[in-house]
């Protein structure tokens, strides 16, 4: 039997707290899970620094990846035998679902920002490069790795396949909302996925949802909205993120300035140089990063040592609301005050903003254009979600942004109470 | 106000998926949580290698420790104002609950076995040594660190206080059963803790449970039984444990033999020497260990490299049932066969056994003697649990043991099919 | 000890699937629960005809009433010792919470509509009349029954007390959303009540919510919105409601026309006469009503017999969307066609509309004016919810209405296929 | 297309709180659910008088019957294509599962006891008699109603089919444990049904369970054990049951004595006469029974009036432990004392016992012989459950019985404190 059709003698199941069980029957899927590149995802947290705010959020991208696979598997079981659905795409969909996050590195957000990387490029590189993943995919079929990469890259010609893992209601989002809600323990984030899966239907170029399931979709959109503001953008996690970013900046800066590290940043050198090899990239997981941070607590450079201590031992920056437009003058004054008290404002006075667009209809040509969710009416017509749902209509296209200014409250507090800079800083920060 | 009585201006809450919220009002508790020794527990998994079997089990000892604290806090709220309860013990109980696992190192079980350590000694050392934890405790009261250590060590004179975290139905066990069930996603492990907390009563030297709550206690005992055999002793996790232990053995052996490491086991040297300093111990967390394992995949020594690759990339040993008494001859033969095919049986043929005693009444003088659970009858008498409960009686004192033999199936399979050693090995292992 | 202060020797607990346990310590509360008027609530379903759509919704007003009591009990535990909170109001609040639905009759909605009753008048009458409830309340204090009635009637002078059970985020609504979601099994309807209870604060004339809990309140508002449209206004339940209403109409009409019942509507006579005594009202529960409906299946009057059969055996009317303004002409034509085929349109062609206002800010002077939910800012100011929450703002004050037309599809289908009236009726109903 | 193969155009789903959704595709099943005999199950509570102890337990046999159907449907989806499974039996299994409780009357237990009925006879009678159910079944196939009746009666030749709804681990038990746990809100009663369903396998004459699923089965057995003693045999529910039984006895006795009822027991006459017609039986639901009880509160006969008041308004008997063997003399004395104080002991001094056998292996020839649960080993052998499971072995075959004596504590308390009979009665009952 062709490798692509080989079934395991006995179905394998993973116990999963979110989907109860994850079922694997295909030899190919089983082999992909067993590769070192996939196992590596166990060493990368799904939510980066969020565990410092919600202590339950210690789950990895490994479990999320299995979850996305499982959701796609269930969707396809439902699609079986329906018009518009080509069963030959099944294995491609499953593989793309499983591997869609393969290129994530440790604390991706910060690394990508500082080193100008894109995890999607690395997903592609791992799938197409000289990896165990690639070897498994190549056995399936000539050109199969390329197809998987295209699906993840959203350039695959069959847009229905793409929409399974990249649309405003895809398997990726459904899994992470449910999973992150479960592990953080928050009470929002739940919605009736079973219902949504039952009413999903394949069309020519997209997945749609039967109109009778609209309310479950509304619930999903609202959950997403709440999760973004309650969990993903939580200011305490962002504080850790800010510190992490500044550590990376500092290491790079020190390296470029010829600083003599007690503990050389060997694993980071290719990142500094801007040419990260696949092997280097794969080797860098969160254990490695944390190892360095612990070591650097003992560096001579005070900024690096302090920031590494803060991150390792959770001594985070405090924050205040901060509106960038209104406060330019105050910002400059704060910046100067920090310099005067000997705190490098580059590292100790950091503004950070988060913004989210909970749902959007199609705005062709605009940046970040997004494909809308379509409902399938009983008569077979398509109806864009926000036209049918009052709730979704009311939040549709409304971008919300949150600005915060981060600073080390402990170091400010340590100054003598009557030092004028301290008084003025607290006044400007509104923390009298 | 004395430090011990200081309350936070605003109660702090941690969102917890198991207990919903963890509440902190005492400044002392808040300060303890903020210490670097307590934060370090975030870098040590609650269930060691279990995440390789149940992928959800990535939670840390940090969250468990908060959970035990919260349970004790709730018990004491219930005890408030009751006879036999001395409210002056409150802070001591809370601190001991929070800190009871402080001395756990990475993958404790294996480290303790190989290096003859006891995590309880380190808990004590951290509490009494020159640590941030000690500094906080000392501020409470002269001799307070010692008291906390005694409670955890079960030598504290007030046995009621001890029983809160060390008895057959203590806050420690209640938290880990519920928490581990939650994160693995298994359906056993649940019991009605709220009910048990409501019927707990303080007596002179122990916590007891009102007889009306007996069935909730039965349920707890059965959950415990199921969790041991389904989760804690799962043969796949034990396979990872076996490999881990063998890695540590190998490193020690190589070090002692003067082997030249590409990547020196610096963090392990004091472990080899048998005199681990507090600083070394605290610095060694799971990130550090995993860093070394990844590095050692490239060592010259084939055994070390292979075992580290297996652990890092989850290429575990297979196993078969193995009864030690009946198979001595076969064991010897297997041992020799492994040598013949070039697999060092010291590292590649490992027997491992697990055993559990689900509940026991008091057997004075016997090894591992355990204090029984007592029910409080409506008339005020005490009744030992197994005398009142048929179910508990039926499993009481019945130790169950499981023996398995672990080996690298992949390396055996690679041998030519007709090689006589391969045939005989498979025959002896019963894996024809 | 005064009756109002008497505590039970041992706290009583009710196992409750929604709040886990309901706790009773006051002798007064225990005695109220034991009265026949309160026990009668077991014989009245919380959701009327909804069990014919969601088969799990068979729960009674008894369990809801206990739930509201329990929520108020928890709120007051939190209020204890806070400014603005007068602990002397405690028992009054608990009693009012427990008894707020006492006057509900069987299938209240239909009975109130047909017989022009108001269940709130009966709540008042039971509390103030010669009932067991009144006897218990009178023992508490001279004038206590009157106070309880005023709280329920929203005329009590202390508006903080009133707001506990009658505001846009009161104990009544919180319980029924959670409870109805639990018993129907729908996945919306959940919100983090524990969080809301923790951030509720008493002010002079209302309960407010700390701003930090805003998102939990948003979630509550959204749950409420979803429950209304998914459950409470479900068109199938409304179909049963329509039939029920028409049965009552028919019985009244027949009675007034001097029709000779095989089974006399004895329990209904005082309802027809418009002067329902307290005893008659209390005696009429859903068992009694269902008894009559079963009996009337055998009446000579075909309409009554048919409608009773439909309700008893769930043979409901079908429905189509129906916009009242646009279809006057068609309505008249339909009406005439129904007459032509021998179906009395008064009973067999029924329009029904439902509408809901999910949340509203204060619109003084307008009909149904509602007190808004106020957030308490960290600085102690009040902020109306829709000004702080984008989500709530977006649905605030937006009334939504749904119109449906109900008819017996089975009786239409039975007509010969080519009968012109059948063809035209199906055309007008759009059910070709 | 033959009626037996007709599928609904669109699958129908029922929202179910226990199984999330209940799926119906077969026209036959849909038609069966719509019959008046099946809809009648909505008017019969699943747990009889248990709602007077656990207020959430107001669910009906209707929802349980749908649940059993759904479980069998899922089992058969799993059986599809497996050896030993004959797909032609599918509809028969589904119909038998749905209809297995059809013959239950109101408060079955008491009615069966007093009137010497067996609900299984009525299930058979409804399936085979002139009912809507029979009409639907007959359309499927000549002899189909008989087959369904045989399956429910356990006499059907294909024992595998029988075992789906009648064995020690059948769909009936699995549904009621989960459902009753859900509605009462107790925390036991849960087990991993999804796991059990996945490891069930058809054999020639029974369903078996793969050995790998043993622990889930253990959990199921333990849940069953806890539910029996915590819920089903709860002494308070049994108190209501005792009163109910005594009401029926009294009515019968009065009727036979020629008592002139104010409110004639018309619906009961055929029960008294011992020849209950199918129509009479079907008409008698719990609404009807409760209607009579309310009416009889006003009867002249004091015993009947009192007992009906007790049942309707939940004024139950108290109870004490009572061991029948040791207390004969005391029993006689109590009996006489009750007569002396004017309480007819026939109605006011009632002993009641409950007993349960949690699991049993096969004991051929013994009364109530039960087919054991068999595990399927990896090698294909069968292993009786209690031989593989320590836990099950330990409770296997151990019958446990509980005896209680019920009496009206309120009427005893009303006697003057020094009346010697009161003193002696309290002494004998041990309620000093």
TrEMBL record, chains A, B, C, D:
Domain HD/PDEase, first and last residues per copy: 57-186
Which SMART domains has this protein been placed in?
HDc
Q: Name one GO biological process term.
A: dGTP catabolic process
The stretch of residues making up the signal peptide is: none
Molecular function as annotated in GO: dGTPase activity
Q: Which Gene3D superfamilies match?
A: Hypothetical protein af1432 (1.10.3210.10)
Cite the CDD domains for this sequence. Answer: HDc
Under what name is this protein listed? HD/PDEase domain-containing protein
Species per Swiss-Prot/TrEMBL record: Amphibacillus marinus
